[in-house]
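Problem statement: downstream parser choked on a complex file, so we are re-checking the raw output for the adenosine monophosphate run. The parser issue turned out to be on our end (a line-ending mismatch), but while we're here, posting the original submission so the record is complete.
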Amino acid sequence: MNIILMGPPGCGKGTQAQRLQDRYGMIQLSTGDMLRAAVAAGTEIGKQAKAIMDRGDLVSDEVVVGIIVDRIQEADVQAKGFILDGFPRTVAQAKKLDQVLVEKGIGIDHIIELTVDEAALFARIENRAKESGGDVRADDNAETLKKRIMVYRDQTAPILPYYDGAGRLEKVDGMASIEDVTQQLEEILDRRAEAARRA
Ligand code: AMP
């Protein structure tokens, strides 16, 4: 099963992707994690990406599309399926992904948006920043997180009508508790599995 999880920074996508990976076995592909690994390893891509990530902007479409297109063709991902977490983040990335998936004959089973109330999300971020006492990722301080939410609104949210227009978007209430969100996601995934079993 192949899934795309959409939603702004701080909505809990990463946590839910991890939970789905543990329960269903698809592989969580987080472009943020991959880029942070490149930064830590000091690769050329990492060096280029670091400053962009630290200030909360988006790394170029070319770089992230390159990373993800390579990864989804690897044997483990082909065998187990994937959960895209943090990709696509622009309409250009979404279109390129569609093109590659068609070329490779790879289908997407679910595109799910974790919907959030932006004001509540900002409040959550302020709280988290206070509770963590400053011990956070370089791009996870309150200021940069707000910037990343703005970037989401400007550059990533336009993907939603692109998917929705094609009737491909399913929505889950991302403001519910972690447990509830997981349950909603599992209902969507299990419904499909049940239908496949009956067919
Ligand atoms: P994340 O962990 O998904 O919040 O990503 C952390 C940072 O990595 C983002 O703020 C961007 O700078 C960069 N990044 C991750 N995924 C993408 C993407 N699909 N396109 C562009 N930049 C990305």
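For whoever reads this later: The two ends are 16 Å apart (CA to CA).
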